[in-house]
């Protein structure tokens, strides 16, 4: 197994988080406390919109299994509904986590349709994309010609799943408030591939444990307040990340404090104010590459969250961008993201 890596935009030696760029005006853009000499080489994964002084962190060792669905199977889903799944040949996924987990189980080719604002590779490669929000309603979603719907939030998708079942299409909904590993187990159960799901879940759990040990061994992460923000709130709104998310799982594993979880927020929550975020005084701000791409870089981020550059994290340049599948998506890549972020937070806390 290869070791976890931390990759700055400007290539640097070692497993360390490094601020990119240098030599800029101190009063221009916020810069990090550390800098590295620019290199002619850059990591192809780093977003081109990464602002000067921000940090790009990525892990590797993303586990995968190769499974074959064994159907029919009868399960009780996250809404407490008993469902018999007969056909998973064309799966409509309610979110990135479902798509990524199916991909990790070797079942990416079953993903037939995914939300149009997806960030995960498997979802983006789905043959069909659909819009679903309070504005669009369920009409477009129900018109997708699938054989199985897997939602990822009982509150958001419970009624949709019921409508699918009324129309003769199997539908289940994942409990979004459980750990990443348990989400893997649950989705594997929907497809009758429990053994492969257990192996994948255990590997991710082991990676989280490694990340916890790393953070504890180096020290400092437990003193940090981490705020994760996203462009993927309901209806495409800007949001603060709370419970039931990959980011919350990772921050908790590292012993740091999640600002969103501390505030009692659930999922991608729009229940925040700019003044409240300023008062929360985060030491580190975290986001996915898809978020930064959606905002278009520093100016777009500042418009989305006007007060965050004035927080301790913003002033110090402690703003971390990670691959969305490693920090936003509860799936096989979460453990790799946890290991990478453990090293990064330890560096920022030093």
From TrEMBL:
<feature type="domain" description="Fe/B12 periplasmic-binding">
    <location>
        <begin position="90"/>
        <end position="350"/>
    </location>
</feature>
<dbReference type="Pfam" id="PF01497">
    <property type="entry name" value="Peripla_BP_2"/>
</dbReference>
<protein>
    <submittedName>
        <fullName>ABC transporter substrate-binding protein</fullName>
    </submittedName>
</protein>
<feature type="signal peptide">
    <location>
        <begin position="1"/>
        <end position="21"/>
    </location>
</feature>
<dbReference type="InterPro" id="IPR002491">
    <property type="entry name" value="ABC_transptr_periplasmic_BD"/>
</dbReference>
<feature type="region of interest" description="Disordered">
    <location>
        <begin position="26"/>
        <end position="51"/>
    </location>
</feature>
<dbReference type="InterPro" id="IPR050902">
    <property type="entry name" value="ABC_Transporter_SBP"/>
</dbReference>
<comment type="similarity">
    <text>Belongs to the bacterial solute-binding protein 8 family.</text>
</comment>
<keyword id="KW-0732">Signal</keyword>
